[in-house]
Records
---
Amino acid sequence: MKIVVTVKLVPDPNAEKHIDPATKRLVRTGVETVLNPYDEYALEAALQLKERAGGDTTVTVFAMSPESLKEILRKALAMGADEAVLLSDAGLEGSDVWATSYAMAHALKKIGFDLLVVGGLTDDGSTGAVPGALAEQLGLPCITNARKADIADGKLHVERETDTGYQTVTAPLPALLTTALTFGEPRYASLKGIMGAKKKTISTLTLADLALDAPVGESGSKTELVAFAPPPVRGKGRIETPEDGAAGAKLIFDFLKEKKLV
Ligand SMILES: Cc1cc2nc3c(=O)[nH]c(=O)nc-3n(C[C@H](O)[C@H](O)[C@H](O)COP(=O)(O)OP(=O)(O)OC[C@H]3O[C@@H](n4cnc5c(N)ncnc54)[C@H](O)[C@@H]3O)c2cc1C
């Protein structure tokens, strides 16, 4: 069985970020790039599924990103992925969610998979729209927010986390799965994993490898970012000095009640 995990390369979540007012795009240079933290959970899920399935199950990581960031995928290989594929092409610059997922879907079709594991959200764009868009483009059942998953009888069996509990869902393969953060903490790469990752393959696809019948990049994007503004600066808040704990608790309760939160 072949499991493919999509991994976006994003600016370090702890770094201060800026938007270029001319292009209205996030400035990605001068900031360290890392694996999108949510995608490390997706990779952990894929590695757990591989361990349970055994046999000839493989895990491939896939990213659409500039070629210069390719080596960052080595971390996913050190964690246990078998190989990596990068889709990189100057013609992809300026792609919105539609164009991104359209190009990704064609690349993923070319790579081939039985199960596609996608993170629920990125730390930079954070639309959470790519999983649904990929499922639509690839004609796959889309099972989101999984806290547990297993493959048995050629089917995907999932526990989906909801606001009130969980649902048990089954889907035929191939399918697309997104993971909740409760699936399990991503593993650390062992020294053996880090050494082994050096020998693993990172191959590159370009637009010439995909038979796209619609444009991507800026001209193929269906959305236009019209304006952006920083969020309003927060006020100082209210400082209270209650006499004791009970008075403090009452103050908090009254405040929440006033805001209709209790
Ligand atoms: C007009 C416009 C122009 C843009 N131009 C650029 C640009 O030039 N360069 C640029 O980097 N971004 C650009 N973007 C942003 C780009 O469209 C989004 O970053 C991209 O669509 C992914 O969206 P997201 O981060 O919200 O993903 P989400 O939907 O939040 O991601 C969910 C999951 O999808 C997967 N995923 C998403 N993106 C990728 C990826 N690239 N590779 C692998 N897996 C992925 C991951 O598993 C992730 O956890 C532009 C956006 C707009 C609207």
---
Amino acid sequence: MAHAPTLPYWKGFDVGIEMQRCVDCAQAVFPPRSMCPHCHSDAFAPATASRGVIEETTLQTGSPPILFGSIRTDLGPIVVAEIVGEGGAPGTEITLVSTNKRQTGGLIAVVPQPSIKE
Ligand SMILES: [Zn+2]
């Protein structure tokens, strides 16, 4: 899946979520770890996931209702996110943002950025 990492439209909206890419096996890792779960290396380079595809969703009822989704990111790992904007059906491509909830007119997935756990 190839996408432009950012479009001018999104500039300033904190597009992308920070992940790690293992230097030894090249797998992307999220949430951040001190050791690669694939090869046990501790050498990581930063990597940014900008886009994803919604795999499944759950609607939390309430006022207002909140739509959560499992999203397969363009780097591979699946993240759980709050889906903001019109649409959001499984199979939909979506832009990933870290914590910025400003409505931009587009469909976004808000992924909390976890800290590294030892
Ligand atoms: Zn690795």
